């Protein structure tokens, strides 16, 4: 957590540097525009004088104002490299914690809420680092490390339990498959959630106007467009949806092995299905109904909030056959 905290600070410093770059670029653009305006005025005055000399009447001139918000190319920064190095170091320490918990327990380390939180946050960082190999999402570093810090803190403070023997229902190979795939799906949903939140903010900036000097979040001008962020979120959530579909199927098979039925309307089962329906609706609405922009982003955000509700509130306050996943 200390490494993730330092990485969070470094990523935040990078966003501050981006904002400074945007301010400098906006000032330079204003200076260039003023210089161009002075040159155009001088040229227009000369043409008007020449025109009056020939006809005795002034000639009208047309001017055009460009109101498009400029996109500023982000510079490579040493602090960003430090942030990534700290994130990788934090991931290695995190991985060590998960492995040692599993060795101490003599089983896979995701049999209760503390262990699920420990493993789930590890997979969020893992997915983020793997995606970075293909797509430059370093601008999400503050969001991802901040989210992992919060979830790890809650798991360590509120959900920690000593190692205890597994209940009979969990003594199955399906524990390895079902819960791990659910954790991986949650990791992809978390990344899609971060992209969707940023998409909404970027869309607000793009619609709001071009005066970057008046925006508090100036670094947005260095990030991809809202449309690009939406496409990235969609692709990420599709992967998460596939994994969640397998989670639902594997859970039904495990339920039949453990309790003799595939579906019993247990609270945990119902909420797992609700999450599946939300993301299925998100993918269907965007692909066939043309739900683009803010509407699709809000569906993705609602889906991830349902995942968090299922992990926290359902486990803690609803009784059922999955009560062993709580404290």
Protein described:
- It is a single chain.
- This protein is mostly helical and 327 residues long.
- The protein is 72% helix and 0% strand.
- The protein is globular, with a radius of gyration of 26 Å.
- The two termini are 22 Å apart.
- About 7% of the residues have low confidence.
How would you sum up the global shape? globular
Instruction: Summarize the amount of helix as a percent range.
Output: over 70%
Order of helices and strands: HHHHHHHH
Strand content: under 5%
**Number of beta strands:** 0
Largest sheet: none
> What's the tally of helices?
8
CA distance, first residue to last residue = 22 Å
Radius of gyration: 26 Å
Average pLDDT level = 82
Structural class: mainly alpha
The parts where pLDDT drops under 50 for at least 5 residues are: 49-70
